[in-house]
Amino acid sequence: MALRSAPLWLLVLLAVALQDSCFGASSHSMKYFYTSISEPSQGQPQFVIVGYMDGQVFVHYDSNSQKLQPRVSWMEKVGKEDPQYWVRQTQISRGTEEMFRESLEILRNRYNQSEGLHIIQWMYGCELQANRSKGGYLKYGYEGRTFITFDKETLTWEAPVPQAQITKRKLDALSGQNYHFKSYLEETCIEWLEKYLSYGNETLLRTEPPGVTVRGKTEVEDGMETHICRLDGFYPREIDAFWTRDGEVWEEETFHGALAPNADETYHYWLSIQIDPKERGRYRCHVEHDGLQKPLDLALEEPTSSKSNLGLIIIGCIVAALVLVGVIAGILVFFKRRQDGYKATPTSDKGSNSSGQGKLEAAAAAA
């Protein structure tokens, strides 16, 4: 059956793939998403590659422009160091586009599907934690679901669906290629991540503390109070925020909003709690972030407004969430379709994220 809900699937997948650690010590990530769709419409590109550094788009390619281009000013330094970089990467991207088109047709036949809207994706990336621990992944998706995933510890592929068994056998047999994938994820990808951090250090390594406000209201029906702790304008996105009661973490009657980006590339987040007004003094909103010299513990104040003020806060949160969904959906529909897996196989500096890409393309063709 054709995937008529592809934009929604892409939105969901984007939320998953861009989900770096939201809490704890700062980490840095580099991720790539490749997407090919069988029936683009209304100007949608048939094939898209998007690269993300710490959740921000830094390179982009699509079948309409036929060019790999920087999306942040600091990536222009790459072209200055290697004048042929963008020409070379564009050529590789065009070759990958053709391979994805062929793989899409192979999978459509394997699933015994009719012509229509279908989607294949390739996702990969690496992450460097503050304690220098490393992580990496490489996987393919079809119709919005995981098709096959690379296990870099065993150098084998995991196939969660029967249709992927053929692909698994082909890829498992390529031991040299699988070792290359492991080496890329654990070494080369990290090297380029650190290089890009040095290029974009003024943006990617900056710290901006959150502005924190706590507001509340009394529920007329049962006399309980609802308080919202709102954090805004912080960077990096990793943040620890939770309610405490008598100094201990308190999760009962709490609700956590989504951590989301602002237009200025900072982030916002909120959490709420419902309490008995008689125990208001026992609760605090606890916040830890790299931009703060020390953790914050904000006491709850007696609500000074009725339902209307909190209603505005909640409405604001909902509107912000809807705007975020709209922005992401628009981006996905028009150019940023989940392609997390390509650009990451360089074996030399000049090859950057795509040197060695031919081996990754071979994996894509193995479908």
From TrEMBL:
Its main location: membrane. Gene3D superfamilies: Immunoglobulins, MHC class I-like antigen recognition-like. GO terms for cellular component: external side of plasma membrane; extracellular space; MHC class I protein complex. Keywords: Disulfide bond, Glycoprotein, Immunity, Membrane, MHC I, Signal, Transmembrane, Transmembrane helix. SMART domains: IGc1 (SM00407). Pfam families: C1-set, MHC_I. Residues 1-24 form the signal peptide. The chain crosses the membrane at residues 310-335. Residues 343-367 are annotated as: Disordered. Belongs to the MHC class I family. This is Ig-like domain-containing protein.
